[in-house]
Design a protein that fits this description.
By secondary structure, the chain is α+β, with helices and mostly antiparallel strands. The chain is 17% helix and 41% strand. The chain contains 13 helices and 47 strands. The strands form 11 sheets. An 8-stranded parallel β-barrel has the order 30-31-32-33-34-35-36-37, surrounded by 6 helices. Strands 1, 4, 5, 7, 8 and 10 form a 6-stranded antiparallel β-sheet that branches. It starts with 16 loop residues before the first helix and ends with a strand.
């Protein structure tokens, strides 16, 4: 957020490509056809978002006021002094201990399920006030049990203390199974929070916006942004485009232009502004209607200087670890300028340490669009801090960009990862397969037997005896805590750092769901502290929403994308969650996937429903989720959870007792991943089109003369897989788990009928 003013044979080889096409068309004919429809924007889905209509006792009409903590110490009402009209919503709290809110009546969003919406509002606060706005979605009818209804997704925007009216917004993807949505505005501090202009619109809205380029360098003091704005309504529409330039907390200027669009018209809008070519900054591009409360789009974009570059190798904290093999320092990036400047730019790089150049500098070539990748081979270097110094010479001006990296001091206990996502622990590369929420040291032998290579354990369980047993079982341990106190982590570091099987930290599980909200800067400070305590041990954090990825993604090295499919069996949510994580989290960080092996009835569902909506996944669903995560790009998986103690809000759970077939499947998948996981991470993925929404997802990796193929049916219905594998010596794929093979065409096209949730792994020989 911007500061107040991120061997069954399916098909004989003799059959032709045409025959495969006939089969697929025959299957497609069994699926109901849906007529193409013209896109119609939703308009504002929030009733009385302006708070001009008043209900009983000055409450806003179509909204509900509710206290969650400290009843009687907070209140809400419609008041005068609105940002746009006469009225606004005022929430008032007398104490920091109160938690009070105002929420909409449930909004029917069936027809927008699976699409993206823009949630926006304007707000201001008294000095001590802060809060958040939350969009919650539900698969079930919210009106039946209201706040006892299981939450499908939860996206939160923090509202920081801010005296002036401020626009906040976020693009949020509604899960595919969404029925109802509720917008909740909460206070969690003292004094007053004022709100006006609450809106939720489908994207693209009445005026759609595509950012074609942002802040390209024109000359040393000038930048250019290009937008394509489109009228999505059935009539003429007017509005304005506004670009704000931000340098950290400082607003550096605003450029805006009016737009008038005929039906279905697209206009290309150029917006130039003054800014130093050497400096990075942020653009906030907003599309308004005729009134500023009509927010049609609002996007923040990080804009680099002339050179946009990062270090790719070493990957883990840009630090060379003795245990991770590498060949030189790899830098990639592009020249962020208009085409004529890209062609005129000369780029070079050198490594600098202690103020002196180490080795020889080298010229770097770029492609026609200005992209480059270069490997620098430094002379022998000792532990310490270094820089890759990039220089761009264009016409009669230059830019120097320094990218820091380091070489770690020699250590017997180093854990990190390389640019391919392989986790290296004490000199050994592994495909990460972990068990989350492990409480009992007596369970460690079962983890090792099932094929896990690490566990996550709370600090209270990670005693010396626990760590000794983990070492005996050859299991790494990530130590977790729900606290933020630096002293605690320092004590834990002193206690565990000498141990080779202490692999790192797991901080504050799903911080975006905590009440009151955890301010992102607190986790950033903790992450900085842990980096100092253990420079060579990674920090993990599980995040379960787009908001979590945006607000907390910088506070860790490895993000565990947490998904609990609702209803059970709706696996598309896992694909979307990993897609969101990859699009939001910095490329230098790893994405692992949490794969549940317990149901909501055992985790946090107050209904204690262990058989219906709160059930654990089936064995087939678990297998599909694990391989779906890998096909979608996850670099490791974490199962959750083996044993859960019962409370008044949840059932107790022990997977070997309550779901023995599921546990057998977990062990089988772990065995397979131990065999092929490193090959997938080490290999090169073939470039085939990929659609996260498709019912069948697949991927092909080339490694050491073999093609490794993973196919997943994400649905509970039979599907037909159609895939292409390039570069095979023969069009034959062999299953690694059963005596089954697939035979395709000479062009490498394969087809296979898939049972519900079927996931298969095949190998073929490459040319």
């Amino acid at each position: 957020m911007l500061p107040c003013p991120r061997s069954n044979t399916f098909m004989p080889a003799a059959r032709s490509l045409a025959r495969i096409g006939v089969l697929l068309l025959t299957f497609a004919a069994l699926v109901p056809a849906h007529a193409a429809r013209t896109y119609v924007p939703s308009g504002n889905l929030v009733a009385n978002g302006s708070f001009e209509m008043i209900g009983v006792e000055d409450a806003p009409d179509a909204w509900v006021l509710k206290s969650w903590q400290a009843p009687g110490l907070a209140s809400g009402k419609v008041d005068v002094g609105g940002r746009f009209g006469r009225r606004l919503l005022r929430l008032k709290s007398k104490t920091m201990g109160a938690l009070y809110g105002c929420y909409t009546q449930p909004i029917e969003v069936n027809q927008y399920a699976g699409q993206t919406v823009l949630l926006s509002l304007h707000y201001r606060t008294d000095p001590a006030q802060y809060g958040d706005v939350i969009l919650l979605t539900f698969t079930e009818d919210f009106t039946e049990r209201e706040w006892d209804t299981p939450v499908l997704s939860r996206e939160a925007l923090p509202l920081q203390s801010c005296r002036n009216w401020t626009l906040v917004s976020r693009h949020i993807q509604l899960p595919a199974t969404t029925r109802h949505a509720v917008v909740l505005i909460r206070i969690a501090g003292q004094d007053n929070l004022y709100v006006d202009g609450v809106s939720m619109r489908s994207v693209p809205a009445e005026i759609g916006c595509e950012i074609e380029s942002a802040g390209l360098v024109l000359n040393p003091g000038r930048r250019r942004t290009k937008l394509a704005v489109t009228n999505n309504t059935t009539g003429q529409i007017t509005g304005k485009v506004r670009a704000e330039i931000w340098d950290g907390e400082h607003h550096r200027g605003t450029v805006q232009k009016p737009v008038r669009l005929a039906v279905a018209e697209t206009q290309h809008v150029e917006m130039d502004y003054g800014y130093d070519f050497r400096k990075a900054h942020e653009l906030r591009i907003t599309i308004f209607g005729t009134q500023e409360h009509e927010v049609y789009d609002d996007t923040r974009i990080a804009v680099p200087g002339l050179i946009d570059a990062r270090i790719v190798v070493p990957a883990f904290r840009f630090s060379i670890l003795n245990d991770i093999p590498m060949e030189g320092i790899t830098v990639s990036g592009h020249i962020h300028a208009v085409t004529e400047l890209v062609r005129a730019t000369q780029l070079s790089a050198r490594i600098v340490g202690g103020g002196q150049e180490i080795g020889e500098g080298q010229r770097i070539t770029t492609d026609q669009e200005g992209h480059f990748s270069a490997r620098l081979l430094p002379a022998s270097i000792v532990s310490g801090q270094y820089l890759v110094s990039l220089r761009a010479d264009v016409k009669n001006w230059t830019l120097d960009l320094e990218l820091p990296f380091s070489k770690a001091a020699p250590s017997a206990n180093q854990v990190g990862y390389d640019e391919r996502g392989r986790l290296w622990a004490n000199g050994k590369a592994i495909f990460p397969i972990g068990m989350g929420y492990l409480l009992e040291s007596d369970d460690l032998p079962a983890m090792a037997e099932a094929g896990f290579n690490f566990v996550i354990a709370p600090a209270k369980a990670a005693s010396g005896a626990f760590m000794d047993q983990a070492a005996a079982a050859d299991l790494g341990v990530f130590v977790s805590s729900a606290g933020l106190e630096p002293g605690f982590w320092s004590n834990m570091a002193q206690k565990h750092s000498p141990r080779a099987k202490f692999w790192g930290w797991y901080i504050l599980e799903k911080p975006e769901t905590h009440t009151p909200a955890i301010q992102p800067h607190l986790l950033e400070e903790l992450y900085a502290d842990l980096r100092k305590l253990n420079p060579n041990r990674p920090v993990l954090c599980s995040l379960s929403s787009q908001s979590g990825f945006k607000d907390y993604g910088a506070s860790n090295d490895i993000v565990i994308a947490w998904t609990e499919p609702r209803p059970p069996g709706e696996l598309s949510q896992m694909a979307k969650r990993i897609q969101q994580a990859q699009s939001i989290i910095a490329p230098q960080k790893l994405i692992w996937a949490l794969v549940p092996i317990a149901g909501g009835g055992h985790i946090r569902d107050k209904r204690l429903d262990a058989a219906g909506a709160g059930r654990a996944p089936t064995a087939a669903e678990y297998r599909a989720m694990a391989y779906l995560a890998i096909v979608c790009g996850a670099k490791g998986i974490v199962a959750y959870a083996y044993r859960i103690p019962g409370t008044a809000q949840r059932r107790d759970y022990l997977i070997t007792r309550d779901a023995p077939q599921l546990w057998q499947q977990v062990a089988a998948v772990n065995s397979e991943l131990s065999a092929i996981g490193l090959s997938i991470l080490s290999g090169q993925r073939q470039a085939h089109p990929f659609d996260y929404d498709a019912p069948v997802l697949w991927g092909v990796w080339e490694h050491e003369g073999q093609a490794i193929v993973v196919i997943v049916n994400t649905t509970g219905q039979q599907q037909i897989a159609s895939l292409t594998v390039d570069n095979l010596t023969r069009p034959v794929l062999q299953s690694i788990t059963r005596p089954q093979r697939l035979e395709g065409t000479a062009e490498g096209l394969f087809g296979k009928p898939l049972a519900p949730y079927e996931a298969g792994v095949y190998v073929g020989r490459l040319n």
